[in-house]
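Hi R.,

Here's the input for the 5'-deoxyadenosine complex you asked about:
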Amino acid sequence: MDSKHLYIYTIGCQMNTYDSSQIAKFLGSTGYAENNDLDSADMIVVNTCSIRQKAEQKAFSFLGRLSQLKRNKPQLIVAIGGCVAQQEGKKILSRMPFVDLVFGTHAISRLPALVRRIEKNRTRIVDIGQQERISTGDYVHATKKNADAAGVSTFVTIMRGCDNYCTYCVVPFVRGRESSRDPESIVEEIKAGVKKGIREVTLLGQNVNSYGKKEGLCSFSQLLERVNTIAGLKRIRFTTSHPKDLSDELVDAFKNIDKLCNHIHLPVQSGSTQILKRMNRKYSRDDYLEKVAGLRDKCPDIAITSDIIVGFPGETDADFEDTISLIRRVEYDGLFAFMYSDRPNAPAARFDDKIPEAVKSERLQVVLGMQKEVTMKKHLKRVGTVQEVLVEGMSKKNIDANEAASIPAGTQGIQWTGRTADNKIVNFDDCSADGEKFELKNGILAKILIKRAFPHSLWGYPVSIKTLKREGERSYAA
Ligand code: 5AD
Ligand code: SF4
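And here is the predicted structure with 5'-deoxyadenosine in place:
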């Protein structure tokens, strides 16, 4: 029998990307094969995100487009999953008559049974049941489905949910209680990926530092050690780390675990101790700065990135100044900055002293402007250095027209792309300056001499011994 077509539209974080790969895998067992053609789809899944208002709006605007499709093709199954589905439940069915299935964040493994019921009886179903604990049957092993296009890098969820209840955040309500997967199944899943060509894994959790604590499994650092022994795997990344739980053991891991990349995403959210308190972050500005100093002490070349919320309720000019001065002091390698938005159930939605949109927007621009300068400064420092890059594929997608114009003539042959261990995007030629051609392929670690710096990427070419001597290279990568 020909397989039925499945179209998945994914919004939101890496965890949703991973969940979508699981959705494809589970539905694959009931005869649905994923492809990118919306018009030929027999089933459409919208995997939603509700972390900020904007993401939720994106989901509903895409869903709006589906009503016409369904009218033309009544047998089409329209399903909504993820955080908005969890949050809104059956309200979605009454608001959107063309929706057949609303499934929550813990219902992915139940999809085959749910879909079979719909196919058979054309009933409309809501399944937003949550379980305290992850069970092994909740996940199936990765295929290349959740890898990047070249199949080199992939995500693996190691825990779900969150127990931290930051006052602005919807995650504890839509993803449920924190629960960790057993290390065995994580390692097995990564091994299966490596067999299919995966060379880099990013371990995902809302707060990886508390991995395994509740269940009495191994610690996160011990999990990293186990993953480190997987033959064929070249790089390990993880996200996200809550600053309050950043342990000395994990700081040491950056020194001791050779495949662990020297990058940490350590969201600060605000530089004001008073705002941090109202956010229920459980660390002060000074605590955070101490953690950063400790990380840089043990691992001087570590890249640190962060999330910032501007315009949290009650954020005064002085509070915002504290955020600015913290950003100036830390000099992040990258920053994601967001304007605060109220979320359902999150306590801050009920706080007084809401900040006007115009002020939030102004503050956001200040943060983004500052970060742009720091990023460029850091990128310029890399010019003339040699970087070790995991080759992710042939691509021009990361180079815009302005950037391409500034790349030296004659070296714009085939462009490749990859990332450094500290997560900088590097685009590069397949030819050294001496005209020496390199046999590049996905998944190898290449030494690239950086010649140009751009706001979002670096550009260079592979090094030959001759080039190294002539350029008087400063070797950056080990
Ligand atoms: N408003 C704005 N930003 C938010 N984030 C989480 N909740 C909100 C909200 N209500 C941001 C935080 C978090 C990132 C994933 O999204 O910075 O770290
Ligand atoms: Fe949300 Fe805070 Fe949990 Fe992160 S740690 S998911 S910001 S509640």
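One thing worth noting: Residues 28 and 34 are 8 Å apart (CA to CA).

Cheers,
M.
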